[in-house]
Design goal:
- With 163 residues, the chain is α/β, with parallel strands linked by helices.
- Helix content is 44%, strand content 17%.
- It has a single domain, classed as Rossmann fold (3-Layer(aba) Sandwich).
- The protein has a five-stranded parallel sheet with strand order 3-2-1-4-5, sandwiched between helices.
Length: 163
């Protein structure tokens, strides 16, 4: 069975990676979909985020990363790549309510695609890409929060982070 794990991943965190690893243990194939969130100011462009995700998952033989086509809905990506499941991570009640609403709409749009909400592990329940960017913008140590390639990329982006 094939699943997709969509997100903006700006940047990918160890919390995202933990969820991806859990999904990879359950599904035959997991495709990490690196999407744009038009409501957010992105630190890394699409190509940079895709490269960072690919670097983070390279040791997982059944995980790949891709960008959606322009103006492509998540359920459309799932259908195009032949995925039966959309995986979404939830950290708290707010995430759960938000993801539950999206899952209901996605089910209407694509009845053949299920959504699986995976709760974050305890140590990652408060971790977000926004928090990582904030810590990095003040020169804080994010080495325990992100994969090594992301930490290196954040160090190279110090001028852009504070914007």
């Amino acid at each position: 069975m094939k699943a997709i794990f969509p997100g903006s991943f700006d940047p990918i965190t160890n919390g995202h990676l933990a969820l991806i690893k859990r999904a990879a243990a359950v599904f035959d194939e997991v495709v990490v979909v690196v999407a744009n969130n038009q409501s957010k100011h992105q630190l890394f462009n699409e190509q940079e985020r895709l490269a960072l995700v690919a670097a983070a998952v390279k040791s997982l033989s059944n995980v790949t990363a891709l960008r959606p086509r322009r103006q492509e809905l998540t359920v459309q990506v799932a259908q195009r790549v032949g995925a039966q499941v959309i995986i979404r991570g939830v950290r708290n009640e707010t995430d759960f309510s938000f993801e539950q609403a999206i899952a209901a709409v996605n089910k209407d749009l694509a009845p053949d695609v299920e959504t699986l909400l995976l709760p974050s592990q305890g140590k990652y329940q408060q971790l977000s890409s926004t928090l990582v960017r904030e810590i990095a913008s003040y020169g804080g140590d994010v080495s325990t929060l992100v994969p090594p390639a992301v930490q290196a990329a954040l160090l190279k982006q110090e001028d852009r982070i504070g914007d």
